[in-house]
Amino acid sequence: MASQPSCQPIKGNVLCRTPAEALARFLHEGTADDYERTIAIAAFTLSLWQITQGPITPTVPSVLLVHATNDSGGDPLDAFAGEFVFHEVCELDRRLKQQEETGIERMLAHSADPGSSMKTALWSAYHGDGPAYRYGRAWSDDYGWLSGADSRIVLRLDQPEDRKALRKDLLSKSDKLRDPKGIDHDRQMVPKQLALSGSLSGQEWDRPLVEALLNGGWPVLFLPHTATAPIEIPYSPDLHLVCMQVAAAGLQFKQVTAELVLPDDPRIQYYHRALIKRLVHMPMDYSFNTQRILRELWRVCFRLARVICEQGGDSNALTLISQDLFRSTLRAIVIGVASLAYHGWGFDAGVSRERVQQLMEHLRTNGPQTRRDLQRKFPLWLKSGKLDDLLKRLVDEGLVTCPDTVVLAVPLPEFTQWLHRKQEFPVEGCLSSLLLGKKCRQEAPLPAQPLKMRRVRKPKVAVKAVEPATETRKDAEETSDAA
Length: 483
What we know:
The chain is of the alpha/beta class. The chain is 47% helix and 11% strand.
């Protein structure tokens, strides 16, 4: 992927009255495409979650945008998150320049005294004000992962070499990711908390990389989209101020209750059922991590909105903004989990996942195939009746089309667009537009048939009445002797 485009602020705008109004304008006017707006809001919310001081939760989710178009111009949504959340707050470019001037060895040479102010100053200058760092520059063979005082790192995939290094470490099952460690202020090796942030092209988002993340226990969220135009940011200086305000707030960690508490909203309840329906077909660790993210998401959105509304914004603004952040992010998470069907995960095809992957790989590699061609290719398990049932399920998931007698694999860009427009994932509205004196965006209606979890019932076994056994002559003799 080439260098990413910068965001384009709308010219001629004056400052907003409050940070809450600036955020409401971004939620309502950031992009005219409802599908891109969902992913942009989710990327914005989850990126703020990653950089909050504290941190706000014990674990921070990894967020990977999937730019399905393979556009050489870069990912505009990742450029937006990088410019407004990471580059502005954490100043990655300044930090990289200082690394060349000082270096880790020179910095640690002045740290003989654990409590020296020079050591603390050098460490802060080297690591900047936030936890974000480029993946390729955050690792030292001698000192492990380099981070700030709270021992957590958000690894940005800004350059192609960063994504190549991530792939190499994941596929080789490197200990640097399985058991991350690095030095602290006292030059002691301590455990580190890692989170990923960046964008992958459609070619980079392949099955080996996805399965390495799914089976590696990472709390990772994929956000697929096909956006190509840069996002226009209304009142961009105010939105910069919002991001800096959240990053400097120092939100302290609060334990989340074991019981899942969701707002009493039919749309939210619907999306929760849609998510669980997919997660039952995922690895257990990934399913657990995703449900934990959902358990923490509502509180995170509320606390982020509260920080933003402290500088001007009533309780009504707090409620509307927190609900918009949560509803859009929840829908993006559900779509991201559903997108894993492209690699054979998240649905029941009637056959094993490995066979689905073999069939889809054959179609994507060899082009259109007839049903007879597929039966010749997989003669051991793909019989006529099973093939019809399998193709019907793949069509329902948007993976193949069957015009006439030919079977075609759907490319990733078309699959992503189909997924965003699928009736199973209705578009949410924008409640915070009421703060601007405008009507709420029209919401797509929920499907007529709500999703219901399919319960596996055991077949009833008829219990036959057992007749008492007749007393044998030998038992009668033993009873009389005992008497």
